[in-house]
Amino acid sequence: MDEIIDLIIFDCDGVLIDSEIISANMLIHELEKIGINIDRSYVARHFLGRSYPTVFSTIRSDFGVELPASFEDQYRDQLLKAFDEGLEVITGVEQILREVKKPWCVATSSSLPRAEKSLELTGLRGLVGDRLFTASMVERGKPAPDLFFHAAKQMNAAPERCLVIEDSLNGIRAARAAGMRVWRFTGGSHMKGQHIDEADDIKSDLQFDDFSVFSTLIEQNLL
Fold first, then answer.
1. Within its chain, how far is the Cα of 222 from the centroid?
2. Sheet holding 132-134, edge to edge
3. pTM, whole model, 2 decimals?
4. Nearest 10 degrees: CA dihedral of 30, 33, 37, 41?
5. Is 5 within 8 Å of 102 (Cβ atoms)?
6. What is the C-alpha separation between 73 and 66, in angstroms, rounded?
7. What is the pLDDT of residues 81-140, one digit of tens each?
8. What are the Cα distances from residue 217, in Å, to 79, 100, 204, 205, 223?
9. 80 band by pLDDT with thresholds 50, 70 and 90
């Protein structure tokens, strides 16, 4: 693969904003109310990088429980309230987005309203502008490559000349399926205390846990 890249594609939750820990805790809490008990390891293993429909279909499949029709809206409402109170940008991200010399965009499994709200709360919405792409814009979400293909097309970049920054295994799978280089960010709060594993058949090209070294990594590996 050519070392030179034309586009950096950032995931949002767990990469730009420290939201995954809030989302995981809220999902655990809301499911507990209806008698379904899961932990953060289960969330990390099954749900990171997945869209809401996939999350809820997995719960139905694994636990044999049909979630109440009101569950999704209630979960979303409670999550947005929690975001209002405690959502933060990942340390160093804003500076990187302002200073990185490569073209970049954001591609997330979140719904468009949630992604826009999250970016607004963390002060990144204006910076991202129209470079925001969500799973609702494609037929299949991660781990399918559709979202990354869509982002690359909209940004006029060839897939093989893109670098994806992801935190989840499903995101890594999606990037690999798209033929893109992928680095894994492991510095989000949801990664603390968790075993940072990668499946034998799907590995990132590089792992890092601090955006203060991002520019140096770009210079050392891709220029």
1. 22
2. 132-134, 104-108, 7-10, 162-166, 181-185, 206-208
3. 0.84
4. 20
5. yes
6. 15
7. 888 888 999 999 999 999 998 999 999 998 898 899 999 999 999 999 999 999 999 999
8. 34, 12, 14, 12, 9
9. confident
The pair of three-digit structure tokens given for residue 16, joined into one six-digit string: 């730009």
Q: Which two three-digit tokens encode residue 219?
A: 């210079």
Q: Amino acid identity of 163?
A: L
